[in-house]
Every structure is written in structure tokens, then in C-alpha cells.
């Protein structure tokens, strides 16, 4: 199974009882925003999605209404109808800066701690468990990042790299956690103000992680992944402090 299919399956892993509609929305938003479903691609049927998620069809329909209201999908009627993914929209950077500024310092630190734990563990396991085919796909996402010309494309390529590593660890839970974290914080890392236009450094860090995976060096792979995530979080923390300081300056 390819990592893309693994990630999609992870997006539809059966839900807990509480907050089901909101959880369905979150899972589908993650899959769409991270590019696991391409523009114009049809989602599985309502009955199939509901079955995969373990929710009632009425719950799924409520979630799809929210996705339509947010412009993420459109519904087409007729024989070949269904729910189709809309073209992605890149959020304005001022909106992302506001989102970062509104995050508390402890919350941002905790997100970083969680991602360091998830990405480091995934890399260590992938060094033992990844196949040659998975390593090739990881390399393809590094090339996609190198070729990306927009913030959204860079974010998606970066996210897919990390999700692919988690999928190569053969862990649905790690893959799902990585998807959630990439959706929650990944795009912030690619803001111009956060150094998002400098792809070279990130590309080099990705290649170093991949090399450790190929060599089966779990200790090095985990350490490189943790350092990679830590540097990104530190950039965001520094930028957040700058934004707060600028707002405190007298007009």
C-alpha cells in the first residue's frame, strides 16, 4: 500500500463516540488541505466514508455540509455526481501571522514537543521498517519541495515528506498524528516572515534524514528528525515574540 493510500486510510480511521461530526470535519479537512486528495478528485461515496469512519450517514452528511460551506468540496448531482475536491486556496500571510500571534507560548512549545516526539519516533522506526519503494517516494517529496514555487506547494511537499516517513514506520497512529500536526502547524513554517522562502536548508535536512533511513541508522535518523522539527519550532517562537514586541511599540 502506498503512503498516499496509507494516509487516506489513516484519515478515515474509526472515530471515538464523542464529538463525531467535528472529528469527521477535521479528518477530511486534513486530508484535503495536505493534498491527499487532488483538486477535482471525487471523495468516496457517503455510505463508504460513513462505514470507514464508523459513523452514521447523517453524521457524515453534516460534516460534508461544513466542508461545502468552507469551499473545500462541491457537490455535483446526476449519474456521475458526488462530492469533489475544490481548488486549494492559499491563505494570506497576514492571516497566518495573526494565527501565530494568537497562539500562547506554552501551546506552541507543547506542539513542538509533540511533533519532536512523533517525527523522531517515526524516523527511528522507518530506519528499520521502510522499504526501498517507500524510500523512493520519500525522495520524490524532497524533489517536489525543491521544485515548489508557492507557499502552499512547499507546505504540502514538506508535509507529505513527514507523513511518508511516518507511513514508512508502518504505524497508523504515528501517521495520523503527523497528519494532524502538519495540518495544524505546518503551513506556519512556510511563511515568508518565518524564512519559508529558503527551501535549500529544509531540503538538505530532509535529504540527511532520508540518507539515515536508507542506511538503517535509527539513532541518527531520529536525532536528525528531532533537530529538524526543533529548528522550525524555534523559528516560529522567535517570530511570535517579534510580532508581540511590534504590537507593544507606541504608535
From TrEMBL:
Domain HTH gntR-type: 18-88
One Pfam match: FCD
InterPro entries (UniProt xref): GntR_C (IPR011711), TF_FadR/GntR_C (IPR008920), Tscrpt_reg_HTH_GntR (IPR000524), WH-like_DNA-bd_sf (IPR036388), WH_DNA-bd_sf (IPR036390)
Keyword Hydrolase annotated: no
Top-level taxon: Bacteria
Keywords recorded for this protein, A-Z: DNA-binding, Transcription, Transcription regulation
Keyword Metal-binding: no
Protein's UniProt name: FadR family transcriptional regulator
Amino acid at each position: 500500500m502506498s503512503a498516499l493510500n496509507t494516509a487516506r486510510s489513516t484519515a478515515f480511521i474509526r472515530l471515538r463516540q464523542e464529538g463525531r461530526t467535528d472529528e469527521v470535519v477535521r479528518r477530511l479537512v486534513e486530508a484535503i488541505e495536505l493534498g491527499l486528495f487532488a483538486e477535482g478528485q471525487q471523495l468516496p461515496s457517503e455510505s463508504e466514508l460513513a462505514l470507514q469512519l464508523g459513523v452514521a450517514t447523517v453524521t457524515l452528511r453534516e460534516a460534508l455540509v461544513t466542508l461545502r460551506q468552507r469551499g473545500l468540496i462541491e457537490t455535483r448531482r446526476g449519474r456521475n455526481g458526488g462530492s469533489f475536491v475544490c481548488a486549494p486556496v492559499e491563505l494570506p500571510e497576514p492571516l497566518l501571522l495573526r494565527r501565530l500571534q494568537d497562539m500562547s507560548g506554552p501551546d506552541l512549545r507543547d506542539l513542538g514537543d509533540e511533533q519532536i516526539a512523533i517525527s523522531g519516533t517515526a524516523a527511528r522506526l522507518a530506519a528499520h521498517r521502510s522499504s526501498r519503494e517507500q524510500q523512493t517516494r520519500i525522495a520524490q517529496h524532497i524533489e517536489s519541495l525543491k521544485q515548489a514555487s508557492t507557499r502552499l506547494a512547499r507546505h504540502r511537499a514538506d508535509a507529505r515528506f513527514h507523513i511518508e516517513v511516518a507511513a514508512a514506520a508502518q504505524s497508523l497512529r504515528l501517521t495520523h498524528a503527523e497528519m494532524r500536526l502538519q495540518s495544524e502547524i505546518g503551513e506556519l513554517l512556510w511563511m515568508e516572515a518565518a524564512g519559508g522562502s529558503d527551501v535549500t536548508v529544509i531540503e538538505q535536512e530532509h535529504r540527511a534524514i532520508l540518507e539515515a533511513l536508507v542506511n538503517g541508522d535509527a539513532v541518527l535518523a531520529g536525532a536528525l528528525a528531532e533537530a529538524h522539527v526543533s529548528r522550525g519550532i524555534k523559528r516560529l517562537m522567535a517570530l511570535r515574540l517579534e510580532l508581540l514586541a511590534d504590537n507593544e511599540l507606541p504608535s
